[in-house]
Write a structure and sequence with these properties.
Elements (H helix, E strand, L loop, with lengths): L9 E7 L3 E9 L5 E9 L8 H32 L9
Antiparallel strand pairs: 1-2, 2-3
Protein name: DUF1876 domain-containing protein
Organism: Streptomyces bangladeshensis
InterPro entries: Rv2632c-like, Rv2632c-like_sf
Amino acid sequence: MMHTAVGWHVELEFQEDDQHTRAAALVRLPDGSEVRGHGRASRHRVDANQPRVGEEIAGARALNELAMQLLTKAHDEIDAASGRTSHPINV
């Protein structure tokens, strides 16, 4: 049986104007560290103004950056604990 020891809460914040959406993602880890990711989206001038779509694109890009930073952090911790260089972690 698998037990959950911790939970993570990811925060996403957006800043928008008529053409651009910026997203910032933040996760606070149980070790006290914070990992942040950022994403952007731009609306082409002929596209309809759909703020939700801009949030989804910018948010996905911020979460993707956050995921890559978490993979790098985990990889570095594996190397530090083992004292050797391990194989890259692939997505």
